[in-house]
Structure formats: C-alpha cells, structure tokens
Write a structure and sequence with these properties.
The protein has 515 residues and is of the alpha/beta class. The chain has 17 helices and 16 strands. Strand 5 and strand 6 form a beta hairpin. It is flat and about 85 Å long. About 3% of the residues have low confidence.
C-alpha cells in the first residue's frame, strides 16, 4: 500500500517489546511513543497532489486532441477549404466534450490512472460515442459536406491512438510515483475502539485510496482505547499528534468520534487546527444520514470535511509561479538599491553586510532568513532575545534608515527566489524566542502557530495595515496574528497583488512602529 507499513515495524520490534504499545506510561500520561519517533525519523519524499495530476491529465488530453486534429488538417486539408473556422469550432467543441465525457466515465480519478486496461476500454467507448454525437450533429445541421472525410476519419483514429498512448504513459508514470510513495497521504486516525477499527478496515479495503496509515491517537487511556487498533499502534494523545504531524509531514487526520461527542471534538480541533493538514470526520459508522452532497469520499468511505489546508493543489503551483516570476523581476528591478545599501552598510560600520537569523517558517520549521545588517556587529543579537526599541543604541546610522524603510528586508528576495522557504506575501516570519510583555507569543495568542500553515512572506496583510515593527505588547502581537489569519483564510493571487501594491504606500504612511 505504500513505501512502508507501520505494522511491519511493530512485528520487527515484537521480540524485544515488553509493552504492546511500545510506550512508557507514568500515571495517566503517555510518553511520546518510541514507534512514533521511528516513523518521524524515516525519510519522507515530497508528495504530489492527486488533484494536480488529474488536472495535468486533462491538459494532456486536450493537447493530444488538438495536436492530432491540427496535424491532419495541416497535411491534408489546409489550402483546400474555406471552412477553416468551422474546423476550429469543431475541434474546440470535441475537446470540451471529451473532457466532459471522460469526467462522466470517471477517467480522471487517480485510481483509474493506475489501471490502463479498464481505463482504455472506457476511453474507447467515450471517444466513439462523442464522435457519433458529432456526426449526428453534422447531419442535422447539414454541414457534413463541408468536412473532409479523410480528416474526420483521421481525427477519430489518430485522436484515439494519441489518447491511448498518452494514458499508457500516464499509467506507467503514476504507478512509478505510487511505488516511490509520492502519491501517499500520510494519515492519522483519532479515536480507537470499535469505531476506529471499522474505519481502518474500510479504508484498507479501498485499494486506490492512496492512504498510508501511520497510527492511532486517542486521549482516552482505558479499555475503550486499546494499544493496538486493527493492527495499528496507539501512538499517543492529541498533544502528541500535533508534534507528530509536524515532524512526519502528516497530510490527513480522520476523526472516528461520533458527532454526538461534540465537546471532545471541539477540544481536539482547538489543538489541531493550527496544522497545515486536512481534517475529516468519519461518517462511516454514523447513524446520522445527511444529503449525499454533504459528504466527500475516500474511495467509497464517506467523511465530513472539517478543515482543509489553506493553500493546496493548484493553488500551490500558482503561488509558487507567482513568487518565482514576480520575485525574480523584483530582484532585478531592485538590484541597484541592494547594491547601494550593501555599500552603505559596509562603509558605515565594520562587519558583514548580511545578517542571517533563524525564524519560524512553514509548519513551524526553523528557516534561515537574510537581512541587511542594521546593528553594530559586536552588538548583534542572533537569538533576538531583546527586540529593537526606539532609539536603540545598537542600531547603526544606516541601520536606522533601512529599518524605517524596510530596505533591510530586501535580501529576503534571495530566500524567495533561490531557497524557496519564503513567499513574497504571507505572515512575517517571527523570531524564535519572540516575547510580548515578557510572555512568549504562543502564550499570548491562542492558536498562534496557525499562522505557520502557509509559508511566511516578506510583506503581508498585517504589514500594510500598520502592524509591523516592534511587537512589545500583547495587543500588538494579537492584532498582527489576527491579520495573518485573515490573509490565510482569504488568500488569492489578487489579494497578493493588492498587498504588493499597498506595501510601498504603507511604508510611507504607517511606519510609526518601525525603528
């Protein structure tokens, strides 16, 4: 089912395990499971979104259809007819019709893309029916005489051959990606007992679900939640799951708790919603029957969508392209400013031009960001244990200007374009040990780490509203996080463009907190 099976790890440890769960217990508190440590330490290749692959296959289908029609027209029809527009309209309608027909025949689901023979049979049926409909339309519209019969026959036969050849290549590629674990969704089950066991068995019966179950998590520590559920270990509590999800790059969490357990579900969601993962509530055993459109499905297993990762599938591609293209253009356009600033920093005080600092990035991971050095070299505070304040004696003369104008942040374009750990727009990456009123940010703001569900950015929604610079009070960090969360929930390319447009304006009009 995937690159590894958790139960294989259990069997490997069985001879030396004194506790079936493998975890140590102190009273009612479970220590972080040793098996969870091993799973977290296993190398994980970046996974590819099935939605993205399905979209690419649609694109390949259209390209195959248009290419065949165009080539046959160019070799046989061009220059012999005045009905070029009619041919173009026909190819366009056939392409759209093919997408609709193949979608209706379930030819774009990732499971179908793994199996060539049944997919090919349905594709032949769909393509043939589409051409029969097109021929019938030509007959009733009395335009059949305007089409070359050689072109129509070649379009049908050549198009079918091209589509089948393309699907064969797609099947080989998808199977290769599956073997390498690139299409797996690493999944955790919340809730043990009979409901958890029934869900796991139902998911395992779906051969093409693409799920890799990593283990079970449950806050209960009694007979209702045994250490093994359908052969999978209970790896800890919900608090353990938060840490496990970050360290293993978990993709999906499925709750097996009944909807009637509303209080428990809400309590757990308050801890999990800060993670960049999909969260689903199993409806497999639920006696409550909602309208079919209320459910989404993992294979044939119904689930209710609770949370989706904020930027996923094609949105990731769009934002990546936006960052690389616009970031590169910005780097070129601002290169004179970068050069002049580098010279000024070097002449103003001794020490390196650039300053590197560890900050929180996507999914709470530590990243290294670049800035122009604005403090005297001997007074540098790499850990940012003391925030820069107004008239801070550690700040150089050039440093005051570049901090006020945020020019010191421009080297982070290198993070965007070359390292890829920053985005142009997003929540600003905070220092690791940032404090407000001598309290850690995460202690001040409930759900603080939810701002790390997307890549941090050079500028953001909070910054254009004046919430930049020093965050020395609880109100300042609270308001900044509120703006960051608004951005995450409402992201779009247009919003990014608006923020980039407003950033230079806000630097001139809302700089009272920057020094």
């Amino acid at each position: 089912m995937g690159t590894f099976d958790v139960r294989d790890l259990i069997q490997a440890d069985a001879a030396g395990a004194s506790d079936p769960a493998g975890g140590s217990k102190t009273g009612s508190t479970r220590a972080f499971h040793p098996l969870a440590e091993r799973i977290a330490a296993m190398p994980v290749k970046p996974t590819l979104s099935p939605v993205l692959i399905e979209g690419l296959v649609r694109l390949f289908d259209v390209l195959a259809i248009v290419s065949v029609a165009g080539l046959i027209y160019w070799f046989y029809v061009a220059g012999t007819t005045s009905s070029t527009l009619l041919y173009q309209i026909t190819v366009l309608l056939v392409s759209v019709g093919a997408l609709a027909a193949f979608q209706a025949l379930h030819l774009y689901h990732i499971g179908a893309l793994r199996h060539f023979v049944p997919t090919a049979a349905r594709l032949v049926v769909g393509w043939t029916m589409l051409f029969l409909i097109a021929l019938a339309a030509f007959f009733f519209m009395k335009v059949g005489s305007q089409f070359s019969r050689v072109w129509l026959a070649g379009f049908y036969g050549g198009g079918l051959a091209a589509l089948l050849g393309e699907r064969l290549l797609v099947t080989m590629t998808v199977r290769g990606l599956t073997r390498k674990g690139r299409l797996e969704r690493r999944t955790a089950i919340v809730g043990g007992g009979a409901a958890g066991e029934a869900l796991i068995k139902a998911l395992e019966a779906e051969k093409d679900s693409g799920l890799q179950i990593c283990g079970v998590f449950d806050d209960r520590n009694d007979d209702r939640s045994p250490d093994l559920v359908a052969g999978y270990p209970k790896l800890g509590t919900i608090d353990d799951l938060v840490e496990f999800a970050r360290r293993t790059k978990l993709d999906l969490v499925i709750f097996t708790l009944p909807i009637s357990a509303e209080g428990r579900i809400l309590q757990m969601l308050r801890k999990l919603w800060v993670l960049p993962i999909d969260i689903r509530l199993s409806a497999h055993m639920s006696k409550l029957r909602l309208r079919p459109r209320s459910y989404s499905y993992i294979g044939a297993v119904p689930v209710l969508d609770v949370f989706d990762r904020p930027i996923a599938d094609w949105d990731i591609v769009v934002k990546w392209l936006f960052d690389k293209i616009v970031g590169t253009l910005a780097l070129i356009a601002l290169s004179p400013v970068l050069l002049i600033t580098a010279i000024a920093v070097k002449l103003d005080s001794k020490g390196p031009v650039l300053f590197r600092q560890k900050r929180y990035g996507f999914n709470n991971e530590l990243i290294e960001v670049f800035k122009f050095r604005s403090l005297y070299h001997e007074m540098q505070d790499v850990a940012a244990s003391k925030l820069v304040t107004k008239d801070d004696p550690r700040v150089t003369r050039v440093g005051r200007f570049i901090r006020k104008t945020s020019i010191d942040e421009l080297p982070q374009l290198f993070n965007v374009v070359f390292k890829g750990n920053l985005s142009l727009v997003g929540p600003r990456p905070h220092v690791v040990h940032g404090k407000a009123d001598n309290r850690a940010y995460e202690q001040v703001v409930d759900g603080y780490f939810a701002r790390h569900r997307v890549k941090p950015g050079i500028t953001g929604w909070a910054q254009i509203h004046g919430w930049r610079g020093e965050t020395d009070t609880e109100d300042k960090i609270q308001r900044r996080v509120e703006h960051d969360l608004y951005y995450i929930e409402n992201w779009s390319v247009m919003l990014d463009l608006y923020i980039l447009y407003k950033t230079p304006i806000s630097l001139l009009t809302k700089s009272e907190n920057a020094y």
